[in-house]
Amino acid sequence: MAENLNSVENVQNNEAGIKPENPNPKISFITLGVKNLAIMTRFYRDVLGWQMEKEQEGVSFFKMNGGTVFALFGADDLAKDIGLTSDQIAVDNTFKKMSLALNFDSIIKVDAFFAFLKQKGVYIQKTPQTVFWGGYSGYFKDPEENYWEVAYNPFL
């Protein structure tokens, strides 16, 4: 029987191997399940100008600043890799209840990035503006309606 690593007992006794000195680990990999790998790879590589790290059958990898890897993986293949059955896969919705984010160190850089997006014909969902949490951000979406926040966060 599999051990429940989330049980209160395990967390209290630190039996789950949680390191208290690093409660917020760095996210090292983001995988986006996509409908059309070729279109999405071209968008990130050719429109946004991101450098590909590696491409193999069914997956495209982009190495981001800071070491994070951004991967595009066919949605059906990703679901299969996760181990989802066909009855576990939800009906396709355009809003995936998630967003990805790029953070810049100034408002000027956020505005410059949006100018670049506009020049490339990328759909801007929300133009950059001062937001309730004290930062400055806007949103764009890629061809499969994955939303990206582009922000300046003075608290990071």
Uncertain stretches? 1-20
Tell me about the largest β-sheet.
4 strands, mixed
**CATH architecture assignment of the largest domain:** Roll
Tell me the count of domains.
2
Rg on CA atoms, Å: 19 Å
Strand percentage: 25-35%
Number of helices: 4
Structural class: alpha/beta
At the fourth level of CATH, the homologous superfamily of the largest domain is 2,3-Dihydroxybiphenyl 1,2-Dioxygenase, domain 1
Helix content: 10-25%
The CATH topology name of the largest domain reads: 2,3-Dihydroxybiphenyl 1,2-Dioxygenase, domain 1
What average pLDDT do the residues reach?
80
Query: Total number of β-strand segments?
Result: 8
Sum this structure up briefly:
The chain has 156 residues and is an alpha/beta fold. It is 24% helix and 31% strand. A four-stranded mixed β-sheet has the order 1-4-3-2.
Q: Would you write up a description of this structure?
A:
The strands form two sheets. A four-stranded mixed β-sheet has the order 1-4-3-2. It has a four-stranded mixed β-sheet with strand order 5-8-7-6, with helices on one face. The longest helix has 13 residues. The chain has 156 residues and is α/β, with parallel strands linked by helices. The N terminus is likely disordered. Helix content is 24%, strand content 31%. It has four helices and eight strands, in the order αβαβββαβαβββ. The chain has two domains: 67 residues, 2,3-Dihydroxybiphenyl 1,2-Dioxygenase, domain 1; 63 residues, 2,3-Dihydroxybiphenyl 1,2-Dioxygenase, domain 1, CATH 3.10.180. A hairpin with a 5-residue loop joins strand 7 and strand 8. The N and C termini lie far apart (42 Å).
